Amino acid sequence: MRRLAVAVLAVLVSVPAAPAQDAAVVDSLERAIQVARTDADRAAVLVQLSELHRYTDLEQAFAFARQAVAAAERSGDPFREGEALYHLAVLHQMAGEPARALVLHERVGELAQRVARSSPERSRRLAADNAVARGVVLRDVGDAGGAAEEYLRALRLAEADGRRRTAASALLELHELYLERGEAGLARDYARRAREEYGALGDTATELRMMGAEAAALLLGGDPEGAAEAYRRVVRQARAAGQRMPEAQALLGLGQSLVAAGRPSEAADALESGLVRVREGELRDDVPEFLVVLSEAERLAGRLSAAVGHAEEAVRAAEGMGSLGLGAEARGALAAALAATGDHRAAYEERVRLAGLRNVLQSRERADALADAEVRYEVDRRRREAEAAGQRAEIAELQTDRQRAWLVGSAVALVLLGALVAALWRTARLQRRANGLLTERAAEVDRQRAEVEAALDRTERLLGEREVLLREVHHRVKNNLQVVASLVNLQADGVGDGAAQAALRQMRARVEAMALVHRRLYDDDLRTVDAAAYLGDLAGLLAGTYGWSEAELETDLAPVVLDADTAVPLGLAAAELVANAFEHAFPAGGAGRVRLALSREVGRLRLVVEDDGVGLQEGLTGPPTGSLGLQLASDLAAQVGGAFEMGRSERLGGARFVVEVPAPRGLGASLARAATDRP
Prior knowledge:
The chain is an alpha+beta fold. It is built from 23 helices and seven strands. The strands form two sheets. Strands 2-4-5-7-6 form a five-stranded mixed sheet. A two-stranded antiparallel sheet has the order 1-3. α11 (204-220) runs parallel beside α13 (244-260).
């Protein structure tokens, strides 16, 4: 199937021969050479004359192209020189001289870079056309990867300038390349894009051929039914547009697709119709290919006599053209048709002739491969020589620049030496004056340094005294609060009223919570409090005050460092909520669980107190009237910009109280930092 798709490709994307020269146009261009004012104008006209003779008189085309190169070189215009060399390279490729063509394309690329300095648009145009032509040469010598890179480069340059004709040419070449490599998906994609470009250009014939190329990619990809349907669309559109050549090409592809799909009778009918148009039109050279495919279709359809006749006609046509490849295909079709008729002797003789042709073809292929290898070697050798010549030129230029720089430097050095002597004499005079000023300034600096050092000593001493005083303040506040707590405790012991004792006990807890903060500040760094240690100690004090064991009071405290402004209200709120749980969660006096937790979230601290007691009253969402402790916890949370919530505990089943406050800024969450700051 791949052989069929690639074979039809040669017909589908072939470019018809150039029309005969218009003698009036040639005469007009030759007169234009005589009246051209500049060598650049003469070079442009000579390039046009070379193009006109390219398909009819290659030798004359070479002559005009070489004259164009000479005129462009005299003009000093790198764009005209690149344009002329580009056409000369194309002629060498047509003459079967790929090595010389590649060398010229390299030179055109260098000139395109020079043109970019003055005209980026013309540079891109020249580089794009050159990349397409260079890709064709690389593909012919077997460098498919290099050819693909050149085509893609040309496509990028052409699309950047909106040059649809060059972009379409690059897309067509990419389609052919990937179809030959068997990559049907890429081949079809590039064929579709090329069809769209040619359609936008109004080139109906080429647009139809690219529609056929899409169908060929479907056939290569293993979808003969899809390919057949695509070819039918091409046939219909070609007939509607009056395009006989694309119609005939599509009929050939349709026949191949139907053969691959297992419908040889339909294939034979389509090929018979296409063969008539090929014999009448401009594709007479494609008659052998039509006949080979037609013979194969007729053999598969059981039309053996017709298959033999068409195969013999294909052999005669191929031999008349001198095409060994088509001759081999025709003899293979003839041998298969003869074998199907039962004439095995004649089939054997044809296979012997076919083997001989294949041997000749293999010899030619080996010779071509050797020639391609020689071309690639020659191209690499010339490129290396060019690189070496460039390096030698760079070295010579560097040496010249170095000598020029040495001479200039010597002259500058002499001038500078004279200026230096004069400057040294003036400097010596200034130095003496400066020394006196520096001595005076040094004395002034020493005096100012002594004053600064004395001020720093005083500052350090004052800071030390301040820290001692601040530590003493915290120590005394702590002691005073402990005295107050002791007095409140003595008062509670002397009061017989239970309600009064409970109130005094709560007062004592609040005072001890504040005292504990000052003790922590005194023990730590006077600025921060270790929240986990502080709340743990506070929980222990409250448990002792209310006669609870530490096992019944659970704590889950994250290592958070707080400042005093946050620690005091948070500790008081914790004391109120824990005391509330001790007093009200278990009215029957039974054992229970109280949990105190502190966690740090993004930008906030969360304090949770929950128990497994009787819970809250139904419908209660805020502190009830008369509950001083809960009201105080809510007020303390609001005092530091936080929030207070209460509800049912999902974990323990009793009441749950949450205090959320903003996390203090500038304080880390690691306990290790606080520990390293301790005295």
